[in-house]
Amino acid sequence: KRYVYAGIALAISLVTFIAQTESAGYLANTLNYKKPIFTLYLTHCSWVLLWPAQLAFLRIKKRRVSFSVFWSRHIYQLRTTALSVVDAQSVPLSSLRPLAALPAKEQDRVIFRYMLKSCLICCLALNVAGSSWYIAVNLTTPSDLTAIYNCSAFFAYSFSVLLLGEKVHKDKIFSVILAIIGVIIVAYTGGSDKSSNTSDFPYRTLGNAIIGVGSVLYGLYEVLYKKLACPPQNVSPRKQAIFANAVGSIIGFLNMILLWVLLPVLHLTGLERFELPEGEVTYMIILTVLSNAIFSGSFLVLLSLTSPVISSVAALITIFLVAIVDWLLFGTSIGFGGFIGGIVIVIAFGLLTYTSWQELN
After folding, report:
1. Element (H, E) at 169
2. Is the pLDDT of residue 196 over 60?
3. What's the DSSP call for residue 164?
4. How far apart are CA 236 and CA 4, in angstroms?
5. Residue 228's closest CA among 314, 125, 93?
6. Of residues 201 and 34, which shows the higher confidence score?
7. DSSP string covering 52-111
8. How far apart are the first and last CA of the chain?
9. What InterPro entries does the entry give (predicted)?
10. Residues above pLDDT 70, as percent of the chain
11. What is the rounded average pLDDT of the residues 101-115?
């Protein structure tokens, strides 16, 4: 079932990422609505909807069970899964007694403190990484931006070795490097920079440095989530998937109460004037936000059930898929380099998946 759930999560994440990319591009380029930090705030806050939406879905499936019984079972399941997460981390306690031997209220306090701290760490890494993209997009070329940011797959593997104790496997290293080569081929043969020269981007070096930091932090975010907030592998795939969306809602809530501070600061300094969207812009923002929420929830499930390395390389496939959708819907030429780069990424993902499967067996 683990691989069935992972396959479903991968399919959903690919489709919703394409929807998010296309709607965000239409919003910025066609409707000329360029409020990147406000859009970032809305999309990351939308994560708070993951747990309520999941709860509603589960309730529909279990509609013949009384709500009180359904609710108590659901909370018990989340609590026991969280307990397994805390136990797996060997969180030091003031008491010498094991966590399972503590009174229920004390267990709840330990679980609450641990999950809040873990989600806060993931929240900070995620938002600094995300903000770096929006800052660098005006400083460097689109090709540099794409190539450097997607090197997060390499950093995800590096941090997996350092923090998760993953073994160094030559086939995995080759797969990750091959995927990054595919991204570079797509980025630098797509023609996005042909009309640009050095004078157009006087702060290109600074922009590349900023997006480089973002690439490292995004790889770190994926590994930190896997290390700090994922249940151990002996927990059933269904419970892992349910818990992943609950954790996503906590991160969304933290985004909501922490990131709003940026909006008045940016408005007062004139860096990004706050304006409520109207008309078609409103509908496209809703589509972008909902697509991101579904993508993020499915991606967290994929992270929980597989590994940061597989999830990172899988995310690179969207580069090729977005190009195909642009070609089908808008007649945008993919180009020979873009096609070859996309095939290289797909081959790299297939090789990585096969290697991981062999390793598990």
Report:
1. none
2. no
3. S
4. 12
5. 125
6. 34
7. HHHHHHHHHHTTTS-HHHHHHHHHHHHHHHHHHHHHHHT---SSSS-GGGS-HHHHHHHH
8. 15
9. EamA_dom, EmrE-like, Solute_c_fam_35_mem_F3/F4
10. 91
11. 84
pLDDT per position as a tens digit, 139-152: 777 667 777 887 88
Segment among 56-60, 291-295, 345-349 with least mean pLDDT: 345-349
Tell me the pLDDT band of 284, cut-offs 50, 70 and 90: very high
C-alpha distances out from residue 41 to 224, 271, 273, 278, Å: 21, 15, 14, 18
Contact 156, 284 (CB under 8 A): no
171: Cβ contacts below 8 Å, ≥ 6 apart: 351, 352, 355
pLDDT given for residue 361 in this prediction: 65
Task: Round to whole Å and give the CA distance between 76 and 321.
Answer: 40
Distance CA 138, CA 133 (A): 9
pTM of whole model > 0.70? yes
Question: Which two structure tokens, joined as six digits, stand for 355?
Answer: 């290697």
Tell me, what amino acid is at 105?
Answer: K
Q: Which helix (H) or strand (E) holds 148?
A: helix 142-149
